Structure formats: C-alpha cells, structure tokens
C-alpha cells in the first residue's frame, strides 16, 4: 500500500527535477568499482532473471524476498554505502517513466 501511494509522488518529483535534461537524454552517475562484482554475482545467483521487464509478483513472493535478501546481505555498508536504500525502478524499460510503470525496489 505504501508503495502505491509513494510511487506517483516520487515519479512526479523525479520527472520535475530532471526537466532540465534534454528529451531522451540518460544521465549515468559515476559507477563505483564494485558494479562489475555485483553484476557478476547477480547473474550467478539469478541466471534466468530478465532485467528488461521486472517481475513484481516474484519479488513480492516469500521465495523471491528470501532469495533477494540473501543476495543483498553480501553487500553491507562496508562494501556498498546505503546498500538497503530503496530506488524507483521502471517495470518495463521499453515504456516511459510513468506512475503505472514504476515500482519501489529495495
């Protein structure tokens, strides 16, 4: 419930704050050196997971939550600052950033 109330407001604020960017411009923040390690381990743990279309049902299932938490527990604050902070994610990357196409990822 909280996610559904928060997502539209966060989406709107994100779009407003990025309004100075040119249309279709993507901003990539600097990547920490741990990104390659995280992606490699992610692919080992979740070899068949699609990253272009996020499966919300799986992520909210008991099995999905348990597996995801176990994966994240490898990256505590000593390895990755604010490792358990939520982020807004597009559910389907081929569609625009709208309240209907966004979920709160943890």
How are the SSEs ordered, and which strands pair?
Layout: H1 2-17, H2 35-45, H3 56-60, H4 62-72, E1 87-90, E2 102-105
Antiparallel strand pairs: 1-2
CATH topology: the name is yst0336 like fold
Strand content: 5-15%
Structural class assignment: mainly alpha
Instruction: Show unreliable segments.
Output: none
- Highest CATH level, the class: Mainly Alpha
Alpha-carbon distance between the two ends:
15 Å
Provide a short characterization of the protein structure.
The protein contains four helices and two strands. With 106 residues, it is mainly alpha-helical.
Give a description of the structure:
It is a single chain. The chain is mainly alpha-helical and 106 residues long. The protein has a single domain (2-105), classed as yst0336 like domain (yst0336 like fold, Orthogonal Bundle). It has four helices and two strands. It has a two-stranded antiparallel ribbon with strand order 1-2. The model has no long low-confidence stretch (mean pLDDT 76).
């Amino acid at each position: 419930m909280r996610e559904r109330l928060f997502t539209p407001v966060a989406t709107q604020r994100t779009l407003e704050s990025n309004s100075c960017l040119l249309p279709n411009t993507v901003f990539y923040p600097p990547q920490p050196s741990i990104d390659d390690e995280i992606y490699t381990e992610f692919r080992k743990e979740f070899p068949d997971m699609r990253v272009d279309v996020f499966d919300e049902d799986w992520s909210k299932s008991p099995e999905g939550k348990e597996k995801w938490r176990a994966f994240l527990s490898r990256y505590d604050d000593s390895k990755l600052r604010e490792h358990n902070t939520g982020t807004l994610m597009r559910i389907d990357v081929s569609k625009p950033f709208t309240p209907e196409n966004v979920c709160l990822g943890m």
